[in-house]
Design brief:
The chain is an alpha/beta fold and about 220 residues long. It has one domain: Vaccinia Virus protein VP39 (Rossmann fold). It is about 30% helix and about 30% strand. The strands form two sheets. An eight-stranded mixed β-sheet has the order 3-2-1-4-5-7-6-8, sandwiched between helices. A two-stranded antiparallel sheet has the order 9-10. Helix 2 links the parallel strand 1 (about 20-25) and strand 2. Helix 1 packs parallel to helix 2. It is globular and about 45 Å long.
């Protein structure tokens, strides 16, 4: 899984105000970790279970101006033992649970949640976040309620949700969600529309991704 819209949206949308340490869980090719480094002065750690993807992330990071602040670790997040707490944890997690698995093992690993189930990601975030830190994820919109309920069960809650449509008349496909420790009464919600019409990016996307997309 290389560069995709989900990862780009999450990398630009995640709040990195006043953060010193960021953890990208399942960093793949390093896209989001690099975007985080471009947006702030924090130290970034990327965790990637697949050794070839981790190697590619290392190569990609080495070609950036922020390479001194980004570390890529080839390991399963569920076995990672952090030496510090993080102000921000960001993840574009595998989210298919019951669909037919792709025959290509690496692609299946990136897409199916048996490598990083929601409940275990929530547990990990609860242990690893600073008291005022947050976990930001991008998931299919139809899983929003399940993720929010699981967060509550684990002692977290949704503070901010942006629903994503590809076009104004299309159904919502994705949800960008920010989870924090403790109980947050009602999350702030809004919508992001990617294109006004095919081939014409919306003002939302121009504002959000203007620093990252060369054609914006």
């Amino acid at each position: 899984m290389k560069v995709g819209t989900d990862g780009c949206l999450l990398g630009a949308w995640t709040d990195i105000s006043n953060c010193r340490n960021v953890l990208d869980v399942g960093c793949g090719s390093g896209l989001i970790a690099i975007m985080m480094a471009q947006r702030c002065n924090a130290r970034i750690t990327g965790l990637e279970i697949d050794s070839e993807a981790a190697m590619q992330a290392v190569e990609n990071v080495a070609q950036t101006p922020w390479k001194e602040r980004i570390e890529i670790v080839n390991c399963n997040a569920l076995s990672f033992v952090p030496q510090k707490q993080y102000d921000v944890i960001v993840s574009n997690p595998p989210f298919f649970s019951n669909s037919i698995r792709n025959k290509e093992t690496k692609r299946a690993m990136a897409r199916h949640d048996d490598t990083l189930p929601c409940a275990q990601l929530m547990d990990f975030a609860k242990r690893t976040l600073t008291d005022n830190g947050h976990l930001s994820v991008v998931i299919p919109s139809d899983q929003t309620e399940a993720w929010c309920n699981e967060a509550i069960f684990k002692g977290l809650s949704a503070r901010r949700i942006s629903y994503v449509r590809t076009l104004p008349h299309k159904p919502i496909k994705r949800a960008l969600i920010e989870f924090v420790k403790g109980a947050y009464p009602v999350p702030c919600t809004d919508e992001i529309i990617i294109e006004n019409r095919p081939g014409e990016y919306s003002d939302d996307i121009k504002k959000l991704l203007g620093d990252f997309y060369m054609n914006l």
